[in-house]
């Protein structure tokens, strides 16, 4: 008998490789999976309902409350129409004279919904309520929360009922040690909900050991490995032609989020020390404008190129053009220090050797399988030294490339998804 799974994720589900792999794997193993995520009001082509396959559906809930949308439309019409602006002014005057309490209430409501920071809380609250409502509309056997920001929804939907259902907490990050988050608050929240779950999944053994010290139990480990068929893709997007580069120019590639703590500024600082090559950043993120300004200030526009984020399905085609790849996370939190990073294995699938940080999970793979060079990722000089070694020693680079392809038959989702099946089998 097939089991029904309700999975939650706090994004638009357009570039979430891990969630896509898990949902697809479960659907292939006989589970019926409904994924609840968030609609993107800026992308009109993104459907609210999407059938990925016969056992896997995607449901996107609206981001904004209906009341907010009505107020915003009315607000814009009033500003655009002088007659409506006059009528509005008269109404506000009458309310001010006759019903001061009403006007104060309406003003506060408008401030909350249209102007102040509380607008964010209103929007998030709306998303949470819609997710829970969507989860209650169908009967599910297992509820699966991806990360802490969907665990409350999954908990309410699975446990606030007469017949309680199984609850999976799939933590893709170390929630209590991340940049931009208050660790004390996060730990209090996570500690409360973690007592309610039936099982937990983390990305690697370093994080599992951390969790054991924190909460007293060792969770299931499910590595974030890509599909092995990426290495057999024949199609290749020629970055040299795309960027107007000479065919013999060596491309030094970073692909992924342009975010704080990824060592991207250290790569730029190291560029003047590279003996040759062009650095290419593929991706978008909060610090991209800052990084581009840094490149401009250092007069490195000819040595550093930027490409916007590309669809996940197309990314391996870009990766194949690279001579080496970068994975130089900085140790700004335990979440970074313990990462085993999907992009490391994406480089591997494409046969691209890496210059990588010497953190435990990454070093275990890179040095253990001889797929690149580990360095102190906080030191631009060390980054440059490793890059120049691979630029000058093509024989070494090609050997590391062959090792990478060989290792990809070990670090891949086809092998790893069996762990997911074991976790679900134990629940059922």
Helix-strand layout with pairing:
Blueprint lengths: L3 E5 L8 H12 L3 E7 L10 E5 L2 E6 L4 H15 L1 H17 L1 H16 L2 H19 L5 E5 L4 H9 L6 E5 L12 H12 L4 E4 L2 H11 L4 E2 L17 H4 L8 E5 L8 H7 L7 E5 L5 H10 L6 E4 L7 H5 L4 E4 L6 H4 L4 H8 L4 E4 L2 H9 L3 E4 L4 H13 L1 H14 L5 H15 L1
Parallel strand pairs: 1-2, 1-5, 2-4, 5-6, 6-7, 7-8, 9-10, 9-12, 10-11, 12-13, 13-14
Antiparallel strand pairs: 3-4
Helix pairs in contact: 1-18, 2-3, 5-6, 10-16
What does this structure look like?
This protein has 428 residues and is of the alpha/beta class. Helices cover 47% and strands 15% of the residues. It is built from 18 helices and 14 strands. The chain has helices spanning 17-28, 66-80, 82-98, 100-115, 118-136, 151-159, 183-194, 205-215, 239-242, 264-270, 288-297, 315-319, 334-337, 342-349, 360-368, 380-392, 394-407, 413-427; strands spanning 4-8, 32-38, 49-53, 56-61, 142-146, 166-170, 199-202, 220-221, 251-255, 278-282, 304-307, 324-327, 354-357, 372-375. It has an eight-stranded mixed β-sheet with strand order 3-4-2-1-5-6-7-8, with helices on both faces. A six-stranded parallel β-sheet has the order 11-10-9-12-13-14, sandwiched between helices. The termini are close together.
